[in-house]
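Exam revision sheet. Question 4 asks you to relate a sequence to its structure. Input first:
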Amino acid sequence: MKYLVFAILSASAGVPVDAFPAIATFGRHRSKVVDLSRSGVICSADAGEQQEQVISLPKSSLTTRSSFLSTLSSASATIGIGASFAPSPSFARGRATLEAAYDRYTPRIVTGGEFYAKELKKMIEKNDWEAIKAATSDPPKKTKADRSKLDGGVAERAAQAGQFCDARVLTAADLYAAAFSDNSISPKTKAMKAEVMKMRDAVTGINSAAREALGEGKSGGGGLFGLGGKKASQTDLAKVIRKLYVDGGNAYNAYIYAANEELPLQLKKLPYL
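Answer key, structure tokens:
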């Protein structure tokens, strides 16, 4: 397992580099991938080998008609067994649904990750509270004025969504995770959704701290971020945001690791931060 250190140093915050933990980048080691779509082919190949063995005639120049028909019947039965292991229609539908979800949601997830690792990191380094707030804020709710617009104000509100907010990135991550389940919730979906919740907590905390630094919110005497009874200072809030940023980065990489496990070969694995 490799680690990519996302330590952030801000002179204005006065926080040492070694005070930050590391964002883990999971190694490329993978458990054995079983491509279920090939199960029918494998079984057919095995059946084919049996077929060769069954229909191989003795090295004798004489073969009775009855023995030949018996041999041919056995070979047909073997072929039928191999055909029964072909992928089912329901499996094909599940694969098609996954590919559609991949095409629809992963671009938002990947773009959000790139923003998180680059632009958001720079904002935090500079203690740019206004930019941090905007980057992690959801779009405004629909108003009465939006009803008079042709698209209901959708385009305008979408433009106001932060580059790494719940509505733009985390909702897509949740929906993509759900694509790995069918009739019941799979362990893979549960693992991915658990990491989305961690990212959501981190983003919410970052947004709240930025708003408080701008004087838009109160932390109840500093207790909201575990700072005791004192009022949170700019330096305190900078430390809080840096810790939440690392927590969110670790959750993002853990989500990507879970998403890439046993991913069908025709789908490209998602990149880490």
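Marking note for examiners. The first strand starts at residue 2 and ends at 4.
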